[in-house]
Amino acid sequence: MGNHHDSIALDWVRGEIQDTLTQGQHALEAYVENRDDTARLRFCLNYLHQVHGTLQMVELYGAALLTEEMEKLTQAVLNETVANTDEAVEVLMQAILQLPQYLEHLASSQDDFPMVLLPLLNDLR
Q: Where is the HPt domain (predicted)?
């Protein structure tokens, strides 16, 4: 069974999370356009860290787990320890785009059930 959460807390932070994810998406896109500009990727990492902290604060652990894995992969790209940077960036973009959909699901069902995120989590790992 999923983890029941407080929908009021999610409603309170969802807009800010979306805005921060959009900033992260733009930073990641800028990095893709110029791979030498690692500052853009660091901005993306900082935005993901903000989202992760917010999700932990409102006890959305499935979504927080997703952002934690996103942070780890972003750091691995920065450290140049991933086998395929193109694939890693593509998976990061997928995750940035999928997280708001998962939050929308949480808003309607109130069950933080990360099993639906498992394929994406595996890709991030």
A: 10-107
